[in-house]
Amino acid sequence: MGKKIHTDDATPTHLLLQHLAAALILTYIIAVLAFYFLAGEELHLRRSRGELGLPGADSGTVELTAGSVVEQHFSMEIQRLEGVTIQWGTYYRPNSGTVLIELLDLRSGEVVLSQGFDAAGIQEGGLTTMTAEAPIEGLYQAPLLLRVTADSQPGSGVSPLMNTQGQEKGWVLTVNGAAVPGVLCFALSGTDYIWTGLHYWEFAGAGLLLLLLFLAGVWYRCRSGKRSYLVNAVAAVQKYRFLIRQLVARDFKTKYKRSILGMFWSFLNPLLTMCVQYFVFSTIFKSDIPNYAVYLLIGIVSFNFFNEACGMALTSIIGNAGLITKVYMPKYIYPLTRVMSSVVNLGISLLPLVIVTLATGVALRKSVLLMFYFLLCLIVFSLGVGLLLSASMVFFRDTQFLWGVLSMIWMYATPVFYPESILPDWFRQTILTCNPLYHFLKNTRLCILDGISPEPAVYVQCMLMALAALLLGALVFRKTQDRFVLYL
Q: Are 268 and 286 contacting, i.e. CB atoms less than 8 angstroms apart?
């Protein structure tokens, strides 16, 4: 892995560097352009973190009749306001008249949003949403007033609900001009600008510059006679590509040896698993996740690949002891080929996912192509874990049993077949946040089921998790590989 490449190899170092540099630069440019097109509006905008949820109602304010007014003074942290929702009480009777909701900017006294609603159409505990034709900007942290009036007659008016226990600093609720304790039961929705998205091309240019500097450093090291692990790894893969193909084919065929259906099990296995778990969790446990079949199958396909890739990589060194002691080849190629054979299996497993997605009526938008980025992160992460496990297995044979337990715990700690909403807050904020598989799964589902792109920072986060695992696995593997033959 770390041996210097000589110019008498099949591909001269300088020519290999040229091809590698051209491939990396071209791939980077294509990825930048493709991401800009596929991410769409989500590259620049996200759901605002300042959105206000609807507080629980415990009282009515006042029956809104001609001359009555309910006003909520407040401020918000939404950059682009899209809608205001209010919850109502009807006294469990039919009502009449028109309810008028107005949002005022107190800096200028201007009415920025106004809409009327028929009181007869409002139900007990029902909601009315005042939606802006275009997102309203410039109200971030501004003093605002939400005013509610009506022209109903006494005995036929509705009442805006309130929460008597809620109170925000600087907020004031008044009913017919008198301040009352509590807050109006209302919610605000909108979006915020994403700073990294607004400066996307600047970041893309900086990334290209860093790539060029990295390639220049690799070129300088090679010219100086120093070894470069990147160039050595690429050269080794190219040199042993025939053997790599044979090992991948062998591992894939061995899995289905003497099987009547053969590789068709790669297609059938996730489908059958989905059917069983779908019956259990949608019938017995009454899961109410929208498009649960697709939600479940994404989890099954992704985790099955991770579990299979790591499990096969775990025995890659001791399982090839005969080859390692007789034929020289960089040892990292053995776990690499195991993971590659699992990637082939993953590709076949995606077919039932596509079929189920189309059969259940999930609309496929352009963002679905972004799922391959998170699958790539999953593959890189699995390779890193596989390198770590394969090195550990050589010295500690108990690793295979410990991994069986750990992988089961990992599966239940990842929302493969259940929604993350059922987990306690402390678990979501600690264990789940630190679980790379959760992030890969969550964002794959977002691209397919919601048809939108995650925030730009999420892509960097997932890439760093995958690369961190790969770096750790490669370092451990490299430090221990020279002692493998003593324990085989």
A: no
Pair of tokens at residue 343: 């990637």
Number of residues that this document lists for the chain: 488
- The Cα 421–Cα 145 span in angstroms is 34
Tens-digit pLDDT profile for residues 81-99: 999 999 999 999 999 999 9
Q: What is the pLDDT of residue 12?
A: 67
Least Cα distance to 448 among 345, 376, 357, 377 occurs for 357
Both structure tokens of 445: 């589902």
Rounded-to-integer distance, Cα 120 and Cα 24, Å: 64
Write a three-state SS string for the chain. CCCCCCCCCCCCHHHHHHHHHHHHHHHHHHHHHHHHHHHHHHHCEEECCCCECCCCCCEECCCCCCCCEEEEEECCCCCEEEEEEEEEECCCCCCCCEEEEEEEECCCCEEEEEEEEEHHHCCCCCEEEEEEEEEEECCCCCCEEEEEEECCCCCCCCEEEEECCCCCCCCEEEECCEEECCEECEEEEEEEECHHHHCHHHHHHHHHHHHHHHHHHHHHHHHCCCCCHHHHHHHHHHHCHHHHHHHHHHHHHHHCCCCCCCCHHHHHHHHHHHHHHHHHHHHHCCCCCCCHHHHHHHHHHHHHHHHHHHHHHHCCCHHHHHHHHHCCCCCCHHHHHHHHHHHHHHHHHHHHHHHHHHHCCCCCCHHHHHHHHHHHHHHHHHHHHHHHHHHHHHHCCCHHHHHHHHHHHHHHCCCCCCCHHHCCHHHHHHHHCCCHHHHHHHHHHHHHHHCCCCCHHHHHHHHHHHHHHHHHHHHHHHHHHHHHHHCC
* pLDDT over 80 at 259, yes or no: no
Q: What whole-number distance in Å separates Cα of residue 457 and Cα of residue 38?
A: 16
Q: Encode pLDDT of 72-82 as tens digits.
A: 999 999 999 99
Tell me: pLDDT of 2 over 80: no
Contact indicator for 141, 157 with CB cutoff of 8 Å: no
Q: Mean pLDDT, to the nearest integer, of 121-149?
A: 95
Residue 285 has pLDDT above 70, yes or no: no
